[in-house]
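Quality-control log, excerpt.
Job 1 of 2 completed; input and output follow.
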Amino acid sequence: MSYRYLLLVRFILINAVAASIACAIYLQGWLDGMFVENTIEFVMLIAAVFVYGLAVCTAKVWRTCAEINDIRSGDPAPDSRAGKYFATIYRKNEESRSIGATVLRAKLTNRITGVRHIANTLVLLGLIGTVVGFIISLSAVTPNASDSDTIAPVIAQLINGMSVALYTTLIGSLLHIWLVVDHRILTTGTINLYSAIIELGENRGRA
């Protein structure tokens, strides 16, 4: 019983550590530069996508953990993934069970790919922010920016644009790594779920 929710506990611990590190960095003031005009919009967009991905991943980890527990109890629900698989291979030969196992693996894999796509979107948004930041920087450069009155605004615009470019790349990359780690935990749980379903199915088939 102490290992029934091991997958969920690992997931919570990893995210608790990551959240603690993020809070420590924020409290040190190292992220203050992102809470300025232009930069904050991109950062909030990337953060919103990350939170959505984290919520989706959490739901899938919980579902996977619950399904593993049901299989270990030996009596999975008929409407669960395992129950549907058992109904499919009931009184089938070895070849049919092999086909059913292949289909099950494809369905389980497809169920978790969405989290990976969201993680990749974070990097893409960071790169878009980088391009926008360079556009902002270059928009301030004009041929007649030669005297001291015009150089100061140009420098300010360059700094603003580079801030957008660097912070969006940084936040997108870090949150991508965070969500990829969560996806890896989900993948491990899915592999364990698949193995448990196949093992129980074969045991029932030989019984």
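Job 2 of 2 completed; input and output follow.
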Amino acid sequence: MEEKQLNNKKLSDSISWSPWMGLLYVVLIYILSQFVGLVILVYPIFIKHFDSKQTSKWLTNSTYGQFIYILLAEAFTVFAVLWLLKKYKVKKSVIGLRKIKLKDPLYGFLGLIIYYPIYFVAIILVTSLIKGFNPNQKQDIGFNSVHGVAPLIVTFISLVILPPIAEEIVFRGFLYGSMKKWMPKIFAAIVTSLIFASAHLIEGVGGPLWVGAIDTFVLSMVLVFLREKTNGLYASMTLHGLKNFVAFFIIYLSPLMIIH
């Protein structure tokens, strides 16, 4: 009896589910995380007694409302992945959640040097080949009314800290780990990156964000490279966070540095 309990508690060093189950689970996580995040609607609707128009305006302009939305959605996403690992008795290290090493952030900075040249070349090629392609298409990232130190900190956490952690666990950790078990790594990297890129198409202003899809596809390929190079997710999280910080700096900090 004791031996059986010990065997049941033993953790596996490999993924047992199929890549299609992994893919469907990621889609399910994404859909459910949006519903979990929408819990924030309870505040304006039931506490403030807002109508739909007022609620939409509140969500658009409330930095703290958007922060709570992202926090709940990302927390649910990470929980869902860790829950499945526990259910299947799979070690977290299988998806890259091992002990952090000093070299991890260094590889993250190296990834930034690799990513930007590839991205710029890709944009030049697509612009020259596809007539009407707009490389300057605007991205809707929310947080349109950020004023003051506290809102800036909250926005920083929402854009630079939370997404890199949750998205690396889900995509380069869980999804890529599910794919590479059953197909060559290069195909697994491409499939993972295409799915990651498609998830960002909806962030365009006035239509699909094609430039964002190219950006995130290139970024994802480099992130997968770091995942393989370091056998962990922390270099990927570092690069992802650095890339998001560059955007955060340009959008929110650089205007504050302009001397009138």
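Post-run check on job 2. The chain has one domain: 2-257.
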